Amino acid sequence: MTRSSKKGPYVDERLLKKIEGKKPIETGVIKTWSRACVISPEMIGFNFGVHNGKTHIEVLVSEDMVGHRLGEFSPTKKFIKHGGKMQKELEQKKKESEIAAAQSAKSAGDSAKK
Q1: pLDDT digits (tens, 9 = 90+) for 1-31
Q2: How many CA atoms within 13 Å lie on the side-chain side of 41?
Q3: 8 A C-beta contact, residue 38 and residue 11
Q4: What CATH code would you report for 13-73?
Q5: What is the predicted pLDDT for the residue at 71?
Q6: CA 42 to each of CA 38, 78, 83, 106, 109: distance values in angstroms, whole numbers, following the listed order
Q7: Fewest CB within 10 angstroms: 30, 47, 71, 102, which?
Q8: Is there a contact between 4 and 24 (Cβ–Cβ < 8 Å)?
Q9: Which helix (H) or strand (E) element contains residue 78?
Q10: What are the respective helix, strand and coil percentages of the chain, to the nearest 5?
Q11: Could you report the per-residue pLDDT of 67-114, keeping only the tens digit for each?
Q12: Distances (CA, A) of 63 to 8, 105, 106
């Protein structure tokens, strides 16, 4: 559910104080734990270190990010692909077939040039 429109977007006051009167180029990474903070136009160009539960992930704020939350750009879960030995064999066969197809296309292109 979204926040009530009469309340307005949640922007962390401490975060705004940190960027107040500073230039984006001169400031380094601004660390924050406030993942729920909505990105406002004043934050454009700044580098934020958004905490993902373990480390701070650097997020460079651009115009397209305004209105989104900081936490959206700092994933908290690391995807480890499914499958095991069988999946690895299937991927290896697929890779080999792609290489063979690329080589045959290259050789066909070379013979057409002659």
Answers
A1: 577 888 888 999 999 999 999 988 888 999 9
A2: 0
A3: yes
A4: 3.30.860.10
A5: 93
A6: 11, 31, 45, 52, 54
A7: 102
A8: no
A9: none
A10: 40, 15, 45
A11: 999 999 999 998 777 777 888 888 889 999 999 888 888 887 766 665
A12: 19, 43, 43
